[in-house]
Amino acid sequence: MATRAPHGPGPDIRPRSAVSTGVGLAGMAGLGLWLAAAIRWGMDGPYAAMSAVIACGVPMILWSLLIDRVHRNPTTGIDWSAPPRPWRESLDVSIVKLVGLWATWGVIAAFYFVGRWYWQGQYLFAMAVLQGLVPWLVALSVPYVLWLDRKLVEPRDGAWHFGLMLLGRGALADRARIVEHARSWAVKGFFTAFMISIVPGNWMDVVQRSLPSLSNPAALASWLIAVMFLIDVAFATVGYLLTMRPLDSHIRSANPYAAGWTAALICYPPFILMNAGGPLDYHSGGAEWGYWFEGSPRILGAIGLVLAALTAVYAWATVAFGLRFSNLTHRGILTHGPYALTKHPAYLAKNVFWWISSLPMLTTTNSWSDAVRNTAILAAVSGVYYWRARTEERHLSADPDYVAYAAWARDHAPVPRFFGWLGRGLGLAR
User: Fold this and answer.
1) Taking the CB of residue 136, how many other CB atoms lie within 10 A of it?
2) Helices 297-319/345-358 angle, 10° precision
3) How many CB atoms lie within 10 A of CB 226?
4) How confident is the model at residue 423 (pLDDT cuts 50, 70, 90)?
5) Nearest-angstrom CA–CA distance, 332 and 399
6) pLDDT tens across 186-238, in order?
7) For residue 241, what are the contacts with CB-CB under 8 A and spacing of at least 6?
8) pTM higher than 0.90
9) How high is the mean pLDDT of the chain?
10) Which of 29, 34, 38, 49 is nearest to 322 (CA)?
């Protein structure tokens, strides 16, 4: 059962974050240099986009290992002080684990094969990249697992238990560990393909544009927003690719609640409900902010600046994860950066952005019914993200570190304090 944050006073000092600020800055430096080079020489192709992910990830790996020394964290489960296990002792475990790991990849590959959406549109690039990576992953997994199992405190993880079951030794396997293993890899398999699929389009949206002038505030804001989304996508893709114990970026647990999975998956294809024509499409008869204020350059510039700032907060929330971004998982508790302001900076910034950019109460058809429907549907979309936030809190509250952070945020973080004050003023909270 999840533990709720205590109602008494929280800690006065903000709990330590699992990720340093420096690792995100290192990733930003690498990504920024590659982006500048790509714009200078017109490198707008899909593999230049994937190279941006590498340019973002490699500096973060180096910072994490050389500066933060995350491989020494107790949470990695690796004992560097003890001598490695003898090969004879660890080899049997490693073989069983490799059976479970390769079988897991086989299940994910079968899911990709069956899912028609993976073989059309932007997903075609993701499938090409993943097919190219498969031989390397299989080959490198052997020395990696053989080496790591000699150093792990407990090498018998979910992949090992799954391997036992496949080898007909299910009586010795822990089914709860197998289920947790399946949940973790379901997250990784589903979201990795999605993130890779959107990398090229996002990259081209920035590299192929000329930097707009200050005299065109709408175009400048649009370009800045595209840059922020590029940053978000690059960091998030790195996070899904690098779930590794030596980087302390492995998945501690995946969300065990069906409500959490439902709330998350309806925000992503192929299950997305917010797309054009979907049940949560709030754009019927509507227009974006640039349409409504086209004749008012000052208002246009002010709104554009606000929207760019909101997208910057959204990107900042992803950068703060460093190597660890992922939906539906626990990979360490963040308390720094935007998470010192609110527990859910990305969701808050994203939803405020949508309300300002779409202005659902205004319609080009002058239809009051469309205006009411759009406003109600966008309110429902915001409700979905509130639902996501609550299910994530329920999952993370099983960790005492999150309980301490939530208690501190309630008493000290500006956004929770504001909503607490507002609730007390309205008589909704004590």
Assistant:
1) 9
2) 160
3) 18
4) confident
5) 9
6) 999 999 999 999 999 999 999 998 888 767 888 889 999 999 999 999 999 99
7) 53, 57, 192
8) yes
9) 94
10) 29
In terms of average pLDDT, the best of 285-299, 300-314, 410-424 is 300-314
Kindly state the greatest CA–CA separation across the chain. Answer: 76
> Residue by residue, what is the 3-state secondary structure of the chain?
CCCCCCCCCCCCCCCCCCCCHHHHHHHHHHHHHHHHHHHHHCCCCHHHHHHHHHHHHHHHHHHHHHHCCHHHCHHHCECCCCCCCCHHHHHHHHHHHHHHHHHHHHHHHHHHHHCHHHHCCCHHHHHHHHHHHHHHHHHHHHHHHHHHHCCECCCCCHHHHHHHHHCCCHHHCCHHHHHHHHHHHHHHHHHHHHHHHHHHHHHHHHHCCCCCCCCCHHHHHHHHHHHHHHHHHHHHHHHHHCCCHHHCCCCCEECCCHHHHHHHHCCCCCCCCCCCCCCCCCCCCCCCHHHHCCCCHHHHHHHHHHHHHHHHHHHHHHHCCCCCCCCCEECCCCCCHHHHCCCCHHHHHHHHHHHHHHCCCCCCCCCHHHHHHHHHHHHHHHHHHHHHHHHHHHHHCCCHHHHHHHHHHHHHCHHHHHHHHHHHHCCCCC
Radius of gyration of the chain (CA): 23
How far is Cα 17 from Cα 8, in angstroms, rounded to an integer? Answer: 22
CA distance 205 to 38: 12
Give the per-residue pLDDT at 5. 45
Tokens at 333, concatenated: 């508790």
CB neighbour list of residue 57: distance below 8 Å, 6 or more residues apart: 27, 30, 238, 241, 242, 323
d(CA 194, CA 271): 12
